[in-house]
Write a structure and sequence with these properties.
By secondary structure, the protein is α/β, with parallel strands linked by helices. The protein has a single domain, classed as Metal-dependent hydrolases (TIM Barrel, Alpha-Beta Barrel). It contains 10 helices and 8 strands. Strands 1-2-3-4-5-6-7-8 form an 8-stranded parallel beta sheet. The two termini are 34 Å apart.
Amino acid sequence: MPVEREETLSHIVEEPLDPSLPICDAHHHLWYNTDINYTVEDFLLDISGGHNVCRTVFVESRLMLKENVPPEMQPVGETEFVCKITSRVKGRNGKILASGIVGFADLTLGTSVAPVLEAHVCAGKKRFRGIRYITAWDASPYIKSRRAVPPGLLMDRKFREGFATLRRYGLSFDAWLYHPQLMELVDLARAFPDNRIIVNHAGGPLGIGPYALKKESVFQDWKRSIKELSNCVNVYMKLGGLGMKICGFGWNRVEKPPDSMDLAMAFEPYYLWCIERFGVDRCMFESNFPVDKASYSYTTLWNAFKRVTSNFSHDERLALFYNTAVTAYRLGN
């Protein structure tokens, strides 16, 4: 992240709300071998603002790849690296980083993906929990995913063969896609009711390009799709990610970053709808750091989540902030 943005975010300093509430951050990254590193030390600094972050789930970045192996095996290097680098700080200040690891495997290999999954499980040392395959695609040239993928990938026969193979190893599937694609995910979830699916970033509501001037119609389309998806009992929802540029809120470019009250007001319609439809036992909060760090600080973000759920019971909040993530990713006690 540019130094000037770090300085801008530092102007918003908040005390953590309800600091004893345990948190399992259900989604974060680590970036090594890139021009903009985000290391374990960077993450520890971000989470040191006073919230009770007890556990975290690392989600693939496809950066720390293994060399001198076939291309399909290269992502196993990331699992090995993250397992090693986070083990060095395990238990520091009572925090367990990457107690769950979600990696990448090319599911379009079909059933031939099995050796890759086995290698991930072995490398993860009992922490490997699932696969994320980014399928985010939109026809607009203004909407660009970090990885080039073809349209309709969730419907592809070979992809579905690979997806079905996850169940053999007890692995979940993290889905990152845009809101116009949600009905494809509904179809996948219905076709494989025994496979656990965890949706990233509230289902990717778009707010730039052709969607920028259609906020209300986008919201209604998104709501309808979320309602359909919630009927699939094998699907969980991550609440977070709205700080990304593609969501259109523009926090990444404002001179004064939003405080937690500003964020809570923007978040509420989306997150409360998800919670209403999925229930607290299938929703979990995520930071999506460092991606969302372009828009707000870690402490401010979790304060916003706590403001959104201020009227919830203690047990409901415990589910949203900790228990659901622990259950969905099978993290144990």
